[in-house]
Amino acid sequence: METYSLLREFADSWMLLALFGFFFGVILFVMRPGSTRTYSKVADIPFRHEDKPAASSGDAKEA
Length: 63
Prior knowledge:
Elements: H1 3-30, H2 36-43
């Protein structure tokens, strides 16, 4: 069997299952119960300094 046919057969079967398993694992990792607080903090980053601009590097010690 030539290399192309072997790799094509591998990609059509086992690699498809491996990538599906990886995708499903990432979804489970993101939806796990303890991640809600972490992701809500990350989602609020654009609105963190809504009232006033962020402090510059020199003003960071005052905040």
